[in-house]
Task: inverse folding
C-alpha cells in the first residue's frame, strides 16, 4: 500500500518490511525510488551551497490548452515525449555535471533498453565537451548503488549494436563502477566520487 | 498572420515586412522569436560538435492521465508550473553554461518582471558554483541583441527590492553588455562572447 507523506512523497510500503502499526521505517528499505533519493540529495547539495543540480522536467507535447475565464490555463490533451537528453544536469565547482539515474530489480545485470538511443548520443556529446557524464544505477533487490562513467555505458551500447549482449552484467558494473554508500545527509553522496576520481588532479 | 513551416516553426509574418506573394523573407526581420533563434543556434553548436546546450522542457504539473487501450497515454489535465531555473543550460569546453533568453518590444528598458524570483535565485546559485551565467536580451523593436552577465541582472533585481527602478535601462545594458551580432550560421553566436570574456585567461 501507499502512504502519502507531508512532503508529498509516496512511501511504497512493501509487505516484507513493516506493518502499518510499525512506524519505524527500515532505513535500508524505505521504498523510495532512486529518482526520489537523487532529488533529495540534490536538494541537500543546493540548500548547502555545494552544487546546483536539477532534474529536467518531463518533455510533453501539448496539443490542446483550455483557457477558462478567471483561472489558470488547463492542458486538456498532451502526450509524453521521449527525452532527448539525460534527466539530471547542473554545475559543481564550475564543472558541468550530467547524469541519468536507473534502477532495476534484476540481480545479475541491467538491461540496456533502460537507455534510449538519444540518451546514449547525448552522453557522447557531453563527454566530447569535457563534461562529467555518468549513470547512477541501483540494483534495488540487492540494495547496491553504483556510479558508472558514461563511457562504459556507451561502450556496452555499441557492442550490443554489433550483436553483443543486451544488458550490462552486475559484475562488470562492480568492476568499473564506484559504490555510492547510502548516507543520511546527503542520501547518495555521488559528488564524493567526482571529487575522488574526476577533480583530484 | 502565421505560416507553419515544415520544420514545425511558426513564422510570424508582420504586415510591414512582406506580402504573402513575396516569398523572399527579409533576413533582419524574419519574425522568429528570440527563443527560436537561440534554439537554432544551439542546434548548430550541437551538430558541429561545438557545445551541448538545450532548452529545458516547460515544467508541467500533471493531474490526470488517460491510458486508452492500444495507444499512448494521454494527459487530460495538467497545469503550467513556474520554472525554478533558467531555460537553457549545457556544457561548452567543460564549463557549465546557464542562461535565460528574454525579448521586449520596449525601446528604452526591459521590465524586471520578465524574471521570476526563482530564476534570480538560481542565477546566484550558479555563479556561486562558478558556472557561466548570463541573459540574452533582444530589444525587438530596435533589432539589438545583448549578452549580459547575470550579475548585473541580479544587482538590478536587488536594487528594485530596495525601492529602485522596476526595469533595466537600455543604456545600462548597452554599457555593461556585449552585442551579439546576427549572423548566418550560427544565428546568434553567443559563445564567441564567452570565448572573449570568460575563457581568455
Result:
Amino acid at each position: 500500500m501507499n502512504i502519502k507523506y507531508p512532503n508529498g512523497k509516496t512511501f511504497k510500503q512493501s509487505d516484507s518490511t513493516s506493518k502499518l502499526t510499525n512506524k519505524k521505517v527500515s532505513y535500508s528499505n524505505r521504498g523510495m525510488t532512486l529518482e526520489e533519493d537523487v532529488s533529495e540529495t540534490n536538494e541537500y547539495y543546493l540548500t548547502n551551497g555545494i552544487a546546483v543540480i536539477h532534474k529536467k522536467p518531463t518533455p510533453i507535447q501539448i496539443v490542446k490548452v483550455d483557457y477558462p475565464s478567471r483561472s489558470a490555463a488547463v492542458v486538456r490533451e498532451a502526450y509524453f515525449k521521449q527525452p532527448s537528453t539525460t534527466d539530471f544536469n547542473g554545475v559543481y565547482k564550475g564543472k558541468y555535471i550530467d547524469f541519468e539515474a536507473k534502477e532495476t530489480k534484476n540481480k545479475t545485470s541491467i538491461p540496456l533498453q533502460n537507455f534510449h538511443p538519444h540518451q546514449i548520443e547525448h552522453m557522447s556529446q557531453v563527454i566530447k565537451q569535457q563534461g562529467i557524464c555518468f549513470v547512477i544505477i541501483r540494483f534495488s533487490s540487492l540494495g547496491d548503488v553504483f556510479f558508472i562513467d558514461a563511457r562504459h555505458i556507451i561502450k556496452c551500447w555499441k557492442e550490443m549494436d554489433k550483436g553483443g549482449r543486451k544488458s550490462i552484467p552486475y559484475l562488470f558494473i562492480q568492476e568499473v563502477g564506484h559504490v555510492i554508500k547510502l548516507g543520511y545527509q546527503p542520501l547518495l553522496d555521488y559528488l564524493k566520487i567526482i571529487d575522488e576520481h574526476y577533480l583530484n588532479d
Summary: Residues 34-47 of chain A form the longest helix (14 residues).
